[in-house]
Sequence to fold (381 residues):
Amino acid sequence: MGEDVFINGWWVAYFPQRPLHSLEHTEHNYWMLALSLKERGWTDHAVAGVLGNIQYESACNPGSWEYCAEVEHQDYQGSCGYVPGAYLFAWTPWTKYYNWVVANGKEEYDGCAQLEFLFETIEQDWNLYDAYGLGGNYFPTWQDFANSSEYSLEKYALGWCSYYEKPSEDPAVNHVAERIIATEEWYKRITTESPPPGVVACSGTSGCVYKPRLTASGIDGAKYWYSNTNPFFQAGFGLPNCTCYAWGRWWELWEQNGLKDIPKLPISDGGQWFSDNSIYTESQEPSLGAVACFEDLNGGAGHVAIVEKLSKNGNITLSNSAYGGDLFLLSEMNVKDGIMWGHFKLQGFIVNPHACSSTPRPPAKKKKRKIIFYLKKRRYL
Fold:
């Protein structure tokens, strides 16, 4: 088939096509996988390790079959020398996942079903095959891998390769060096970029653990709004003031999520932020923690606010401060209507790259594991 098909939030290309036909669809799938793992508490280091590996396992195509497969659902060794692997994680033989699909009434090429299978079976498949240069038993349990971030990104690339994927030992085939590079690239992307519009985790959420500000509690005297680090406070335009508030709210979110950096938002009037911003992604779609930018149809200085809640009916809840008015107030508006308080016209959103955090599960109690070595080209997973 020459076209990608959409199955439960994932783009799929069928046999014999291995990578998806569209780069845009490929990007969509990588972010689907990233958000679905992050939502379950996997750290950015761990997620990047998985993404860097999957690029060389399936190119993030839930319909992928190994290159040596001669037919779909090949149940003989053929030129592979073994019954081939398939799907997102190149499970070998492919029947391992397929039998689970049949037993549970799932759609074979549904990426979310494949992740469900991963989560159900990872415990039994997690063991060290140190043939790729990892150099030690860094992640005795899969939870040690998923919930940690203390090692280099190279260790997470090699960790997923060594404990879970276990590809060929031949460097010309396993692309270990490329897996490390891809892991580093994906870490940079998932920690600095926002997912494309419409990408959600398998649960149907954005994968974002967000702490909304719905009251003024904790604002009075807080450094985010009452210190010279906030350029609006320093210039004498402190609260109540929409720009001082929005700038400080980003700083508050970033620090809540473990960042020490300071936002580099515009320092102009609110109505100029959307045009003056040259650093962060802009969108016409709302996202949690984003700055909503408004033009004042009455000719005023404009307005900025922060997206705190998203509703299925298209409404968003914004936290605000009003120059010469309320220090803090909430508002609700419909994005399609694009008008708030009768005279503020929505220009768009400045996407907050660090609005979300994950909530890692407590690491499992470490237990001793045997280091197991296999002599096959690919470890059957």
